[in-house]
Amino acid sequence: MSLHRLRITAFRCIEAAELALDPSRNYIYGANGAGKSSVLEAIFLLGRGRSFRTRRTRALVRHGQEALTVYGEVDDSVRTRRLGATFGGGHLDRRLDGERAKGSAVAEILPVHAIGPDSHDLIEGGPIGRRRLIDWGVFHVERAYLEAWQRYRRLLGQRNTALKTGGTGARQLGVWTTALTEAGEEIDRFRSDYVDRLAASVAEHARALLGIDVTVDYHRGWPAGITLADALAASEARDRLSGHTEVGPHRADVTLQVDGHEVRNVASRGQQKLVAAALILAQETVLAVARGTRGVLLVDDPAAELDGGAVDRLLDRLAGVQSQVVFTGLTPRGLPARLSSALFHVEHGRVVAL
C-alpha cells in the first residue's frame, strides 16, 4: 500500500495543504518552525489517531480555528481507500470510505511508524512505549491478536474489580484468575513469536547503523521459570492489598542490550536514537515479510543529534527499506538521488511541490 494523496486543514501552522506523494520516497525540507514536521504529524494522526510529538491533540489545531482535518487516499492491492481524521470539540472522529470507523480498522490500512528527534525515549524511557511498539507490530502481523488483547484487558479489569471488592467479588477471584491465565498465555505466545522474528532484523540494522551487535530480550511480565498461574498465585496476597494485578503481560517489557549491558545504560543519546531506528526499521522489515505489504515510515529530521557519518548510514538504510518513506530536513543539499523521488518545500506553513 501507499499513501498517494494527503490533504491537511487547520493543523498547527498549516492553514491548508495538499500533497501528491510518491509511493516510494518523499523529502520535505524547510527552516525550523516552517511546518515540515507538522506534515509528518498529520500523517501519523491519520494512521494512529494521535501525534508522535504530544499527547494533547487539541494542541494540533491551528490557532484561531475550532477543528482540524486530515484526509488521505491509500492505494492497496485492490482499490483506493479514503481515510479521514477530524478533531474538534475535544473529540477525534475517524472515517474510512466515508463511514465512521474504529481506529484498528484505519490502522490496518495505514500502518505508520515514526523516527524522530525523541526516538531515544523508546530506549531510555519506561516500558509502556516499548510495549506499545511491540503490540503495534504483533497487531499488524497476527490478525487474531487484537481480539486476544481486548479479551485480556477485559479480564484484567474484572480481576482487578474482584480484588478491590469483598464478598461476592472476592469469591469470583478464582474464576477471573483462571480466565486471565489462559488469555495471558495466549498474549505471551503472540508476543514471544513476534520478538523472535524481530530480533534478527534488529541485529542486522544495528550492525549497519552502529557497527555493533544488539540483542533483543523479551520480558513477559512475570518471573522466568514459572507459569503465569503460579505467578498469579504467588502474587495474590500483594494483589489483594494493592487492588491491582501486579504480574502478567500488561507488565511486559523489551530491552535492548550490547555486550550484556542495556543500551540505555551505556549508549549516548545519538546512539540510542540509532538503536531505536534499528528497532523501528526492523518492524517495517517484519511487516513486509509477514504481510507482503508496506507501511509508511516517517523520519523527522534524521540529522538531529547525529554526526555526518551516522546520518549517511541512516540514509543508506532508508534507501533500502520497502516502506513508503516521508522524511524531513533543513535543506535538499547533499540528498542522495535515490531518496528524492518527490520533493516538497515548506515555508510559513505553506507546502509547495518542486
Helix content: 40-55%
Q: If you compute it from the alpha carbons, what radius of gyration comes out, rounded to the nearest whole angstrom?
A: 22 Å
| Tally of helical runs | 11
SS class: alpha/beta
How would the blueprint of this fold be written?
Blueprint lengths: L1 E10 L2 E7 L4 E5 L6 H13 L18 E9 L4 E9 L2 E6 L2 E2 L2 H7 L2 E4 L5 H4 L2 H15 L3 H20 L3 H4 L1 H38 L4 E5 L8 H15 L10 E6 L2 E2 H4 L2 H23 L4 E4 L8 H13 L3 E6 L12 E6 L2 E4 L1
Parallel strand pairs: 3-13, 3-14, 8-12, 12-13
Antiparallel strand pairs: 1-2, 1-4, 4-5, 5-6, 6-7, 9-10, 10-11, 14-15
Helix pairs in contact: 4-7, 4-10, 5-7, 7-10, 7-11
Question: What key attributes describe this structure?
Answer:
354 residues, alpha/beta, Rossmann fold, Glutathione S-transferase Yfyf (Class Pi), Chain A, domain 2, 6-stranded antiparallel sheet, 6-stranded mixed sheet, 11 helices, 24% strand
Question: Would you give an account of this structure?
Answer:
The chain starts with a strand and ends with a strand. It has a six-stranded antiparallel sheet, covered by helices on one side. Strands 8-12-13-3-14-15 form a six-stranded mixed sheet, with helices on both faces. Helix content is 44%, strand content 24%. The mean pLDDT is 94. It contains eleven helices and 15 strands. The protein folds into two domains: 1-111 and 293-354, P-loop containing nucleotide triphosphate hydrolases (Rossmann fold, 3-Layer(aba) Sandwich); 120-290, RecF/RecN/SMC, N-terminal domain (Glutathione S-transferase Yfyf (Class Pi), Chain A, domain 2, Up-down Bundle). β6 and β7 (99-100) form a beta hairpin. With 354 residues, the chain is α/β, with parallel strands linked by helices.
